[in-house]
Design a protein that fits this description.
The protein has 2 domains: 137 residues, HAD superfamily/HAD-like (Rossmann fold, 3-Layer(aba) Sandwich), CATH 3.40.50.1000; 59 residues, no CATH class. Helices cover 42% and strands 15% of the residues. The protein contains 10 helices and 8 strands. The strands form 2 sheets. A 6-stranded parallel β-sheet has the order 5-4-1-6-7-8. Strands 2-3 form a two-stranded antiparallel sheet. Helix 6 links the parallel strand 4 and strand 5.
Length: 206
């Protein structure tokens, strides 16, 4: 018997390389990552306010022009999936698959379409009324799909998903693409550099 019935995914780090576009639009790699980091600080765990405004506010904080912020929002559909995602996702066919993303509804769906796979639900921060790791986005996704958290493996893209998904009872597979040190408090079921070990974990019996 399979260990899990469903797989949840972070979108903008676990599945898509969003960092490269932030860097290109900023015109400098370090500045692009500071801009991205500033946006995360403004939204993480908070009540929803328009994601587009957060991108603009974060740009102002780090010295990115308003024009470049609008340019990033216009190019949101240019993210590419990581190479391992293209290889691994077809091997998860047969599972319920859903996304939980810190994004607006419109931009979340634009980005999800870039993955190249079917998802049963795309749950955005706008839909849930809060940004991860607040439990609401994860909980609303599970409620809409009728899933028990103990039967779901959540694929995290960043450290905040470890606590966010873990606190409501989901096991977490961390696609730790930035090789970030493991935080204390919510150890993942797996801490890997990418998704390549995911099929092996899904195949393990209960």
């Amino acid at each position: 018997m399979a260990r899990y019935d469903a797989i949840g995914f972070d979108l903008l780090t676990a599945l898509l390389d969003s960092w490269s576009l932030w860097k290109r639009v900023a015109g400098d790699d370090a500045l692009g990552m500071r801009w991205h980091s500033a946006s995360q600080s403004l939204l993480r765990g908070r009540e929803y306010r328009p994601f587009e405004d957060i991108v603009r506010d974060a740009a102002g904080e780090v010295g990115v022009t308003a024009e470049r912020a609008e340019h990033l929002l216009r190019r949101w559909g240019e993210f590419d999936p990581w190479a391992d995602v293209t290889d691994v996702l077809p091997r998860t066919d047969g599972f319920v698959r859903f996304i939980v993303t810190n994004c607006s509804r419109r931009l979340g769906n634009v980005a999800a379409a870039r993955v190249g796979a079917h998802f049963d639900l795309v749950m955005t921060a706008e839909d849930a009324g809060a940004y991860k790791p607040d439990p609401q986005p994860y909980l609303v996704a599970l409620q809409r799909l009728g899933l028990a958290p103990s039967l779901v493996l959540f694929v995290a893209g960043s450290a905040h998903d470890l606590a966010g998904a873990g606190q409501i009872g989901m096991d977490v597979y961390w696609a730790n693409r930035g090789a970030v040190p493991l935080p204390e408090g919510w150890p993942p079921t797996a801490n890997e550099a990418d998704l390549r070990r995911l099929p092996e974990l899904l195949a393990e019996p209960t």
